[in-house]
């Protein structure tokens, strides 16, 4: 913090994206504060079928694992509990072909990792104090003012903070985004993602499986546990009314319908954890910057989960913004203004374009595959099969998803 009490960066919101952003900027030598409403619970290696475990997992891409490795966090994460996945299989219930990805074919040890949300947040939080991040928790932003030189935040505790750049990473319902006057455009899919841990008769084979159904995709993601490679995290996209019904169905009914939906691909499903469901929508910020306030992660973009890219896109916002700030510091011999409009606007244009393209691509896939119309049914299986028979195309898909 400078002698005038002005920080370089304040990050609001300390989920995966916000905590990673604060840690990255602090590691680069900026003075950083982080504001969060509540301290996250400590992660523990709770078995996936015990009550109280966080059901949220991510298909973590290699470029973001590289980021956490550079920040000194990935080793702790990977030693705690991660599941590498070496294959992906995508097919349509109507038949017609399969799209397959294999690590060996790409010359990789793995395509990515399935990682728990709670574990990522815990390890990032553990690293924050040692990096010099000033934590304001529990606290929240209740007021915002800015001028040409700084942003002034009023916190609920009465504390006032001032910084040259403020990053809103406080989620899809971002209070800071609203205070900054940034509007969003949203589309409700009238679907929910039903999530749970399950145990299958056959091993998951270190593979992510996704079957497209007229009601929406069903994904089985391999999960690290002591069950001989038979535990998976499921994400089942369903219309609202069906998700509500299955969320409250008895266990035998749920397992029977899940086995049918997955066509017995991994045999009988013999165990299930608690279940949860979350509403699905596309939501895009109309701008990523307002003055010296930037939005990132879910505060900037919410996308359909069918490609598992939500947190990966958010961390790429951080990667790109970190790169811009580093370049500015290099050009100005260490005296850069992190909230300088020219650098922020360049970052905002690029990220908004990339994320909007991704969001609408996922939207198009959801419309094509969550559809029982004759034309869509006849097209989608052969399209997957054709893509699977074109190695350059599958390589391009993987490089895009991996951030390569």
From TrEMBL:
Q: What UniProt keywords apply to this chain's record, in alphabetical order?
A: FAD, Flavoprotein, Monooxygenase, Oxidoreductase
Q: Which PANTHER family match?
A: 2-OCTAPRENYL-6-METHOXYPHENOL HYDROXYLASE, UBIQUINONE BIOSYNTHESIS MONOOXYGENASE COQ6, MITOCHONDRIAL
GO molecular function terms noted in the UniProt entry: monooxygenase activity
- What PROSITE patterns does the record tag this protein with? UBIH
| Protein name from the UniProt record | FAD-dependent monooxygenase
All copies of the FAD-binding domain together span 7-332
Q: In which pathway does it act?
A: Cofactor biosynthesis; ubiquinone biosynthesis
Q: Which domain of life is it from?
A: Bacteria
NCBIfam families, from UniProt?
Ubi-OHases (TIGR01988)
Its required cofactor(s), as named, are: FAD
Q: Which InterPro entries match?
A: FAD-bd, FAD/NAD-bd_sf, Ubi_Hdrlase_CS, UbiH/COQ6, UbiH/COQ6_monooxygenase
Family designation = Belongs to the UbiH/COQ6 family.
Pfam families from the UniProt entry: FAD_binding_3 (PF01494)
């Amino acid at each position: 913090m400078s002698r005038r009490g002005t920080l370089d960066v304040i990050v609001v919101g300390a989920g995966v994206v916000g905590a990673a952003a604060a840690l990255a900027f602090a590691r680069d030598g900026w003075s950083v504060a982080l504001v969060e409403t509540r301290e996250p619970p400590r992660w523990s290696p709770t078995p996936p079928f015990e009550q109280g475990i966080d059901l949220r997992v991510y298909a973590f891409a290699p470029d973001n694992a590289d980021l956490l490795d550079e920040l000194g966090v990935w080793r702790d994460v990977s030693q705690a509990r991660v599941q590498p996945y070496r294959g992906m299989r995508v097919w349509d219930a109507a038949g017609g072909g399969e799209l397959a990805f294999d690590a060996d074919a790409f010359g990789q040890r793995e395509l990515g990792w399935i990682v728990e949300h709670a574990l990522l947040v815990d390890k990032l939080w553990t690293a924050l104090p040692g990096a010099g991040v000033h934590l304001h928790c529990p606290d929240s932003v209740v007021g915002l003012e800015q001028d040409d030189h700084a942003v002034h935040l009023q916190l609920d505790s009465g504390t006032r903070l001032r910084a040259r750049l403020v990053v809103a990473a406080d989620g899809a319902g971002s209070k800071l985004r609203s205070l900054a006057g940034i509007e969003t455009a949203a589309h409700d899919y009238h679907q929910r993602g039903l999530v749970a841990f399950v145990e299958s008769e056959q091993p998951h084979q270190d593979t992510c499986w996704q079957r497209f159904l007229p009601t929406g995709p069903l994904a089985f993601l391999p999960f690290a546990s002591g069950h001989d490679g038979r535990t998976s995290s499921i994400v089942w996209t369903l219309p609202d009314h069906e998700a509500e019904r299955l969320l409250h169905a008895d266990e035998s009914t749920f397992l029977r319908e899940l086995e049918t939906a997955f066509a017995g691909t991994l045999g009988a499903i013999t165990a299930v954890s608690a279940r949860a469901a979350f509403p699905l929508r596309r939501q895009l910020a109309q701008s990523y910057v307002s003055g010296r306030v930037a939005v990132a992660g879910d505060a900037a973009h919410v996308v359909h989960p069918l490609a598992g890219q939500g947190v990966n896109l958010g961390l790429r916002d951080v990667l790109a913004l970190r790169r811009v700030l580093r370049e500015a510091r290099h050009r100005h011999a260490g005296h850069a203004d992190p909230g300088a409009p020219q650098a922020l606007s360049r970052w905002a244009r690029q990220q908004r374009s990339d994320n909007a393209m991704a969001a609408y691509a996922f939207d198009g896939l959801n419309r094509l595959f969550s559809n029982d119309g004759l034309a869509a049914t006849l097209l989608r299986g052969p399209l997957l099969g054709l893509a699977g028979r074109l190695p350059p195309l599958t390589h391009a898909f993987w490089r895009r998803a991996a951030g390569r």
